[in-house]
Recover the amino acids of this structure.
């Protein structure tokens, strides 16, 4: 039978070390959970109805994520956020830095922390690419942030011109979109995949925006032919919907089905 021992300095150190590790792990959990939230301002159904003015600033959105897509008040172009830099692609095709004071009627942002990486070695169409990535999803009932960086044989993007109140529906506004065709370009697709059951809150399936590696062109992605690249997938642990507090959102009838276009 062993005699009773007093705690040796080595053992005491181990106990303290374990306590410190536990504190670090559990103490840090709320912060890391906070980072795995997809924040969305307003709903796609509200945007479809022409609710093109929001109250959330890009300073606020930038505090909630470093990756995302959306638009600007008045539907003034397409927004893409990549590596914590926010860009505005206007209907003249120019890419500008977003000022923190600018506001969004609809946007999605998340800290991008991918857990799945997919090597894309063979040329694929957008349809093939989307199907290939969907096979890597752990399940169809979550929201995924998707980033694809690579070389593209072609990319077809669009942007929309700023609208003036009284605003038209989104489908009407999109009729005046400008389409740009890029050839042999390197760049990044930034987007999200939403499950069918969130239809109306967002658009089910994929929604991508694109920016070229030289940051000189981009927009809402309509089509592409990928030569090769890498896709990274990040499943959101939580979804936080920020309701607009304007009268137009409060009184809008968001129940009926609206046309399928989105910016
Ligand atoms: Zn879009």
């Amino acid at each position: 039978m062993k005699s009773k021992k007093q705690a040796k300095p080595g053992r005491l150190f181990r106990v303290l070390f374990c306590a410190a590790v536990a504190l670090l792990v559990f103490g840090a959990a709320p912060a890391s959970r906070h980072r795995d939230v997809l924040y969305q301002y307003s709903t796609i159904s509200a945007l479809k109805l022409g609710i093109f003015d929001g109250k959330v600033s890009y300073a606020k959105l930038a505090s909630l994520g470093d990756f995302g897509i959306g638009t600007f008040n008045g539907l003034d172009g397409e927004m893409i956020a990549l590596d914590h830099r926010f860009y505005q692609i206007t209907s003249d095709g120019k890419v500008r830095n977003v000022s923190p004071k600018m506001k969004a009627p609809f946007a999605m942002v998340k800290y991008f922390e991918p857990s799945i990486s997919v090597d894309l070695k063979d040329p694929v169409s957008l349809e093939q690419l989307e199907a290939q990535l969907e096979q890597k999803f752990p399940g169809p009932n979550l929201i995924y942030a998707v980033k694809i960086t690579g070389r593209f044989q072609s990319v077809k993007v669009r942007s929309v011109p700023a609208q003036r109140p009284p605003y038209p529906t989104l489908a009407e506004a999109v009729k005046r979109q400008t389409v740009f065709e890029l050839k042999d370009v390197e760049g990044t697709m930034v987007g999200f995949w939403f499950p069918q059951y969130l239809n109306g809150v967002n658009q089910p399936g994929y929604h991508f925006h694109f920016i070229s590696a030289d940051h000189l062109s981009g927009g809402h992605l309509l089509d592409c032919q990928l030569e090769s690249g890498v896709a990274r997938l990040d499943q959101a642990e939580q979804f936080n919907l920020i309701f607009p507090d304007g009268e137009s959102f409060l009184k809008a009838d968001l129940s009926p089905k609206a046309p399928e276009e989105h910016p």
